[in-house]
Amino acid sequence: MEKVKVAVIGAGPAGFYTAQALLDANEIFWVDIFDTLPFPYGLVRYGVAPDHQKIKAVAKVFAKTGRNKRVRFFGNVGYPDLIDLDLLKECYDFLFFTVGAQADRKLNIPGEELKGSVSSTEFVYWYNGHPFFCQRKYNLQSRNVIVVGIGNVAMDVARLLAKNYDQLNSTDMADYALEEWKRNEIENIYVIARRGPAQAKCSAPELKELGKIEGVQVVVSPSELQLDENSLRELENSSSARKVYETLKQFATDNIDPSKRHIFIKFLLSPREILGNGKVEKVRFEKNRLVNKDGYLAAEGTAVFEEINASMVIKAIGYRSFPLEGLPFDEKAAIIPNESGAVVGIEGDLAGRVYVAGWVKRGPRGLIGSNKKDAQQSVNKLVENLTSFSLPFRKRECDIKEYLSQRNVDYIDFPTWLKIDKLEEERGKKLGKPRVKFLDLQEALKALEKD
């Protein structure tokens, strides 16, 4: 069989795991990976906390995939601005969309638009040097900060806010963010959970890290660790939930050490209004109780309220994907509807040719490694369907490089990225850091010219 050409839209973990699964499945597959950003690896580069370098080591696995002769990378080439569905279906046999979940879920409460009300996505992208967010300004000269949510992203944000400049200076945090950490005056970080301690979504290792930060006290009120029968039953059925709960018990105290910075973890609270005159000054919360709704322990308001003063609120209550031009979208689930990765609801000459992997396929859950199994499932579905197709689907042979050159697109291929990657590491080595990132494409290209 001749070459089967596959376009992968999105160069994050799901994209690279998909490419590798295609390479492993059959030598007929040749893969082009496209991304709006100039540099690859998505969440690994711009989402993983800078003090979690071991997690970022997975980039070495992706680099091996990128070096394969049957894979090409085109950075700074976004869908649908530069490559649209009409072009892709003419030039490729199959399409994989692996674009992740780029937006935060909103609180949908009054005052959410006030200055100082920040989405975790924007904040994380900012301190990680994301090209689209590096011009943002965030003020850490706040006594109190509220983090809404108790997943791993909330843990990352709380942990970094609790650290000082010296504790982060040896990481690959963006220099402009480090400058703000020099002025970090935060004394109290409130991590707010809508439900109880048995329902906390963070992992035990992430939670334990909070307790290891020098100069920081993690505080959980002992009264908030009391569980009802339904929550006790949940713990019995989940080893991960038990580990989280046992860790929370280690932080249980009513004795506050005034000499330390504090992370207060509070349960059974829902934000109802962010208050302030043009900027965040306090947040009004409603106290909740847990009610059993068909086996799910839901938070229900009690009409009892309390307020916490703060000048910054970071919302970390989950992500959602955007609709993609030309593709079906399930607004409620915020995913592209699919069966084991094969997109459903597409008719005409694209029927059977479009697949998804990653968060846009299953929703924003799981760790980076979860995308490997997920991508494999989608590729298996394509391989299973191959016998049903009369190939090739593509209508013509396309020279994508020529197409982009004619439009004066400064795209980054993988050999060029490897040179940029090496330069970043060299810049970091001089300062005792893992790397110093280039913040935009032109900065990187100028550095390559000098090298």
Descriptive key words:
451 residues; alpha/beta; Rossmann fold; FAD/NAD(P)-binding domain; five-stranded parallel β-sheet; 17 helices; 18 strands
Can you give a write-up of this model?
The chain is α/β, with parallel strands linked by helices. It folds into 2 domains: 4-102 and 322-412, NAD(P)-binding Rossmann-like Domain (Rossmann fold); 103-319, FAD/NAD(P)-binding domain (3-Layer(bba) Sandwich). Helices cover 33% and strands 21% of the residues. It is built from 17 helices and 18 strands. Strands 6-14-7-8-10-9 form a 6-stranded parallel beta sheet. Helix 1 links the parallel strand 1 (4-9) and strand 2. Helix 1 (13-25) packs across helix 14, helix 7 packs parallel to helix 10 (204-210) and helix 10 packs parallel to helix 12 (239-250). The longest helix has 16 residues, at 370-385. The chain is globular and about 70 Å long. The relative contact order is 0.17. The model has no long low-confidence stretch (mean pLDDT 96).
